[in-house]
Amino acid sequence: VVGGGNDDGERCNNSFESRNSFASMMMMMMMMWPSLLLYSVAWVRAEEACVELVLGDSFGDGWNGGFYTVSSSLDGAVVARGALDNGFTETDLLCLADGCYRLKVTAAEAWASEISWSLGGGGSLSGGAPAEVEFRKTQNQVVEATCDVVPSSLPTAHPAGEAEQQQVFLYATASCSVKECVVDATFDVTALEDFVVAADLTIALDGDLGLPRERAFIRLNGADAGVCGDEFARDCERRTCSDSFEQRDVTDELLTGGGALVVSFEITPSVDAYCGGDDFYALKADLTLALRVSTTRQPTVGPTMSSAPTSLVSPRTLRASAACFEDGCGVTVKFDTSSFAHHVASAALEIDLAGDLNFLTEDAEVAINGDFAGTCGEDFQSEFYSYYGLGRSGPDCVERRCTLFDGRDVTNAVREGTLVVAVDASSEVHALCGGGGDHPPSSAPAYALRVDAALVVQVSETRFPTPGPTLTPAPSTLTDTSPRTVVASVRCYRSDEPCAVELDTSTFAAFVADAEIHVDLEGDLGDGNHEYVQVAVDGVVRGTCGEDFSTDCLRQPCADSYNVTQEARRGALVVGVAPSADVDAICPSGDGLFALEAVVTLVATLAGTTFPTPGPTVTPAPTAAPFTVPTIWSPRSFDATATCFDDGCVANATFDTSPFAGAIARGALTVDLGGDFRELSEFAEIGINGEDFGTCGEDFTAEDCGEERCFDSRDVTAAASTGSLVVSFALSPNVHAFCGSDLHAMHARATLVVWLSETSLPTSSPTNTLPTPLPTSSPAPSASPPPSASPVPTPIPTSGLSTFRELEAALENDATTEEKRVDGVIVFERQLELTSTTRRLSGDAVFDGHFNTSLLALRDAALTLEDVTLQRGRGTYGGCVTASTSQLILVRVTAKNCVALYGGAFFFETSTLVAFDSVFSSNEAVIDGGVVDLRAFSIFDASRCRFISNAASLIGGVAGVAVLESSSSFTATESSFDGNSATWGGIAYVSASSSFSVLNSSFESNAALEAADLIFLTSAATVQLYNTTLRDHRGIALWCSGTGTAYAALLDLDLSERLLLDENCVLFLYQSNNNGTKAFRDEVIRNNVVDLASAGVNFLQWSYPCRSGQWSADGIEHGDTDEYHDGNGRTIDQNDPFCDDDPETFGFPDCGASCQTCPGGKYLPFTLNRYLHLGEASCTDCPVGRFLEDDGSTGRWWLHDDDGDCVECPPGKFSWEPGSEYCIDCESGTYSSEAAATFCSFVDPGFFLANASSRPASCPPGTFSVGGSDSCTPCDVGEFQQEPEQASCKACPSPMTTTGKGKTHCDACIQSYFWNTLYWEDDFDQGEIGNGTQCVKCCTRCEDICDHDDEECVKCDEDGSVLETLDVRRGWWRASRQSLKVYECWYDLSCRGGRSIDESDQCHSGHVGALCGACAEGHDYEIS
């Protein structure tokens, strides 16, 4: 209370109606509008500070959804809001500090003409709707005016002193109605922060705080501050926390918290909710903050927002809880965010529910600030009970996270200052939890629904700017000179290029008096000086940012701002950001990974007249190397709608992209659809420019007529580039017209975002030149898109399979590729079957069976799933997947809420399941195996996996996680098993020679109704537990019945953990920690029949079996026998029948011998069975084709601990004997082309071997080889080979031969013959060359062409003579190269002969003509 206060603790009413109390008015103003105190020195009385706002409606039915808001002109904060709910008139009292405000009246479109309003006495201001007016308030008068600049400080007439200090009291409360709650109470005094002299806090508590262990832990701005309540003597009585919180000085906490003080209360589990009458509560807290404030600003103030105050820095978590106690009841929780609403960067809501939520019909509807937001609880349990006609069972009253509210974005709601979450249970949710229900009885009544909500807020260090309205440029004067804000952002998808944004200032450029830009960055900027960004304005580097960031992928502001007055006056400016080389694309988003995102905010101060009125002095930009602005890919967004009003109708939404079609670099389409869509038979077929684009609506989960997203940024680049994009919607016949007041069947809203390629901007702009933007209505630019060499952002990845039909086609019909991408929620219409195929599916996708069908069936198939969620599948065998002789690999997969009779999630026969980094949660089997049922030699290997709250639920249900039968095996490494349950075997039921092994893992809070909280083993089954923690198991952890063997080593056990064995079962327990001691106690194993001394418990010793890869005479690596004892005081060796202190007497081995490593070529896998480490013979030989080189002499056991240590022989080598230490090189003429060869193969004839590690190559035609050759031999002269891979060559038939070696056919004649080309060309084709016998006629005897048989007219003294080049003897002549007749000349001396047939060459000088029988010109024939 300002100026005194109530000493008796009585609180003042802070409602609007308390007008006569100066204290209550001051309290109200500080709590609701604390920022007003910064702008007014005169603290006036309430009745002098209020003005009337008269609301009217001419029809008398109120404003029909219309409303008004009053906001501060200084910072945009809303200080009042209201409406005329009913009637003709109503008066609201606005109690405001003196200053400037903006009144905005918004009306429902249909009834705007009925609305009227009047503000101030005598109707100083009045109007209708819609309306927006700015006014100044002075005392109780208002006038229409423009706001002045905010004063920077409170004026003061003289220094502060005690006389000028006043007392202010602030109050807050916090309460919770459930156990183990955490609640906050917040004081926001940011308006008074700089005037606070001192602050004292007093806390009073009321609740179940009557015992020393019942207390509340208190934190101030997140720091531990003490406890309260343990000193209280009685429950449910309000008392002051006298020790630590009665007038506790919290001045430092308040000032270092930036004017905010958050007081958190966390109660211990023993504090129950049973105080009160109708509304039971566990804790109530009343807080009083007493402030001593001065009318002058204090010299010492807390840090600014940029220096990270405690409570206004991200993240900030608020919690609230509530419960209701009647069937079908509802609760409301409220979060007050008014103290930091203007600094909210993002906010996420988490809701956990507990109650009677066991069936699909038992759920709760959730509303956020009055708007329906979804449902919760229907997926907590399955509906298999009614499906199988079984009775009701299952874990009611267990708190679980709502699927739709696990990080739900509520940023806009939180920025309003208040977040109200209403949760209404369905009528079938009954009050049966707590009290006499399933929880331990208490005096509290049974509840139907309990809500625990958490609000996680990312708070910005600076206030979010409010964009100014878009202005039409005034010709010479500007009436509205309020600051203008322009915000733009850009995302860089590649780490090796800069990117840029354009800020449009053309609407106010002529009036810019001063302008500056602020840059916020998000990206790979967490590595100091190596990762930073250069910032440039119009091509000139202005500075760097990011080198001081410490966290990757978190938006943070740059320390420097940049004056851009001159650039803003040009009408537009380009801000470029260039990341350093170390900035990589690692930050996730819906578009894929990006390297950098920049948000640029320009704030311009405007003058009333245009410049050249001198603006502020601008510091010149620093000299730096020019910044090359990259090609701008400027996104533009366009909206279109389509509505139709008949059952099964058709409608179109059209985009005209012709003005810029030639410049579209990328186009993305988003479609939101509303209408009668809730069933699988209700959908819309969507087409793009006449081409099928998919379907939408069949997987909608909201109520009918609600809007949901179909396609999110689907690639439509090609269609948009045609100049027109037509999106057509064709409804199925079951979509009916009954939505909305207009009774429409469908309403679609489509958004097209296009990235346009423009030419590169210059590195600096002339002073008076405006950048030319891409026209929005002119024809498409003639310039073609930039060349491929220009840097461009990485395109948004095309989304993958997103509907059931697409997935069905890809898995069952499409055999083109093995790997597919999947995206979004895919609702399964039926089980998809993979047979004799291999597939890989990856992506951010959810496979949802909606409890209607099992998801996948594998038959002789191999499937890999990566980053996929499997949920709500239902089947008889395997709710998610059933497999036969198949393999399934899971990588970062979540399998949850799947239900089946056998194998809640998976049913495997003779199949293998391998899982990495996966989660198996809330799966349920009616009979066997909450997660998996393994049969007939099946295998499940899990690494780094979590098994949470899985169950086999019915009476007699077996194994919360896994059932193993018929020699199957389950191995889990670095995994956890928490909260799983069954009737028999909370984790596993192992039988029929199967094995269950867990290494380096943990078990916690698992349970079985009848036996074995962890593992039930029988029928020659084996269990191994190594380096594993057991916690919080109330029953028997390990239960063996019949025959079975359990090995346990390095167990971390509580004393409460129990292991139980029948007489026919054997337990080997090594080096297990019993409450931190080295000696064993009886508490380790509790059983009325079997205890530590019984014969059924063998080798209880501190010694340990030889580790993997090692052996010893008794299989044991012994410890110090003098130090370690069993529970009966006997030494280790006395417990061991293989050991004796005097081996010479009894002939037993020396148990003190250490273990030895297996020799080369051998290994010994991990086992806790000592008998498998007895002697060197226990080592296993590496199989043939493999070797292990290490000889074991160095003791490197880890080189011999697994068959994977046996290395495959490389190509060119082989190993034919098991247990090889090395591989043998292939001999000459032999080879092994594959790894792990057991022999080398002989090279066949017709092949040759380049090296022993590759396959033999074929000998080509014209060559041959014998077996074992390393090369091919060319065919000799006179031989040929037309075929490849031959062992010999063929001889040419006489009189044929070849012109050389390596011939594929006979191509010449022997001596005395010539090759008759004319015969060849006339009678044979090329393909007959290879068979020489058919070409013998090509060889003609030389004498056969002489015109005298007894003469020799040509010379054929060598092989290879050819018709065209026959050597004609002297005195003979032929007409041409193709002549087959040679004539004797009349006169020997006239014919020269030779190989040429030219007349000048055949005839001697002076002779011409046939047979050279004529004389050339100038010659005569001499007869002698």
C-alpha-based Rg, rounded: 46 Å
Instruction: Kindly report the average pLDDT value.
Output: 76
Question: Given the C-alpha coordinates, what overall shape results?
Answer: extended
The total count of strands amounts to 109
Give start-end ranges of low-pLDDT stretches: 1-48, 148-163, 299-313, 382-394, 436-443, 465-475, 612-634, 758-798, 1073-1102, 1119-1150
Describe the structure.
The protein has 1424 residues and is mainly beta. Helices cover 4% and strands 38% of the residues. The chain contains 11 helices and 109 strands. The protein has a 21-stranded parallel beta sheet that branches. Strand 108 (1407-1408) and strand 109 form a beta hairpin. It is extended.
In short:
By secondary structure, this protein is mainly beta. It starts with 21 loop residues before the first helix and ends in a 9-residue tail after the last strand.
